[in-house]
Amino acid sequence: METCGTSCGKAAYSFLFEYDTPRIVLIRSRKVGLMNRLVQLAILGYVIGWVFVWQKGYQETDSVVSSVTTKVKGVAVTNTSQLGLRIWDVADYVIPPQGENSVFIMTNVIITLNQTQGRCPELPDKTTRCQSDADCEEGYSGIHSNGVQTGRCVVYNPAEPANKTKTCEVFAWCPVEDDEKVPQPAFLKGAENFTLLVKNNIWYPKFNFTKRNILPNISKMYLKNCTYHAVTDSFCPIFRLGDMVEAARNNFQEMAVEGGVMGLQIKWNCDLDKPASRCVPKYTFRRIDNKDSAHTVSPGYNFRFAKYYKNADGEDSRTLIKAYGIRFDIMVFGKAGKFNIIPTMINIGSGLALFGVATVLCDIIVLYCMKKKYYYREKKYKYVEDY
């Protein structure tokens, strides 16, 4: 019986004192020959079709550097019992006036007018309802409180005698905001007709190539009258808000109630071996906050801000605004390519090396899968002893 030491010794002897060299064997077999050519043809198709034609493996590439500025236009009219007849323009509904690669457009609002600092009843809920002063803790302020409790229990709405609800009194900006009911339909439902001008400048540093999405053939007169359309006018940089939301397969009026986040994607894929006029942007639209019926907790997009005033007596007051709206994020991406000999030679060398796969595959089939495998092995390998 052969021991481990003996087998290990033979293996070491073979490793040190035996040498193998390739031997070329010509096998006249239609099956093997056809299979070999098919594999080589597939590799050749991959190298030429995928690497060089589709992926442009002969080019050096660079990623885009970009800057974006925006401008919104449009007016809306509202007529409510609280505010009366009012016109809303860009200064009212674009917050802040300038953003970094994004713009927020207010579409719905809850306004609390003439707030002053003082004492008033807190909004009723399970933590603020009370029966007596003993239920209210002086100095207490909850996470969702509008102010600090004074320790008194007061009637929530004295103007309605039938309403006996009592809540803890708070020191806060009074009257406190009631945001339980979001206005429906949206307060600025006409916002779907507002337009957004996007000015995008790009730069490919490696090739020192610059361009912008307002193409050289666009005139001032054309820019004043055009609106983007994917089929009829795909290079106009002015977008109607309703069209963008619709292109993302959403309903603008539904989205305007509680707000959301939209993505405007600008793709610059440029082949700089071709004329620069063929390097043009491609626009796509997508809703990013991805609201669906299965996830209805804390939907949309909103925030609060206030406008402060001081009367003749020096008393401060404010108008509190809870703004719902759509934030448009402008995302620019892409790459440019240009012929370079180095990636060309690297991909040619890689392609030639792949042809060895055909030989390996055919050897496996011939030596291990075919009926005459022992015969082929005998012809493939020749053992020579050193006498």
From TrEMBL:
One of its GO terms (biological process) is response to ATP. It is found in: Cell membrane; Lysosome membrane; Membrane. The keyword Membrane applies. Belongs to the P2X receptor family. Functional P2XRs are organized as homomeric and heteromeric trimers. ATP binds at K71, V72, K73, T195, N302, F303, R304, K322. GO terms for cellular component: lysosomal membrane; plasma membrane; postsynapse. Disulfide bonds join C120-C174, C130-C153, C136-C168, C226-C236, C270-C279. It comes from the Eukaryota. Glycans are attached at N193. Its main location: membrane. Receptor for ATP that acts as a ligand-gated ion channel. ATP-gated nonselective transmembrane cation channel permeable to potassium, sodium and calcium. CTP, but not GTP or UTP, functions as a weak affinity agonist for P2RX4. Activated by extracellularly released ATP, it plays multiple role in immunity and central nervous system physiology. Could also function as an ATP-gated cation channel of lysosomal membranes. The chain crosses the membrane at residues 38-55, 348-370. Keywords: ATP-binding, Cell membrane, Disulfide bond, Glycoprotein, Ion channel, Ion transport, Ligand-gated ion channel, Lysosome, Membrane, Nucleotide-binding, Receptor, Transmembrane, Transmembrane helix, Transport. This is P2X purinoceptor. GO terms for molecular function: ATP binding; extracellularly ATP-gated monoatomic cation channel activity; purinergic nucleotide receptor activity. It is a multi-pass membrane protein. It catalyses: K(+)(in) = K(+)(out); Ca(2+)(in) = Ca(2+)(out); Na(+)(in) = Na(+)(out).
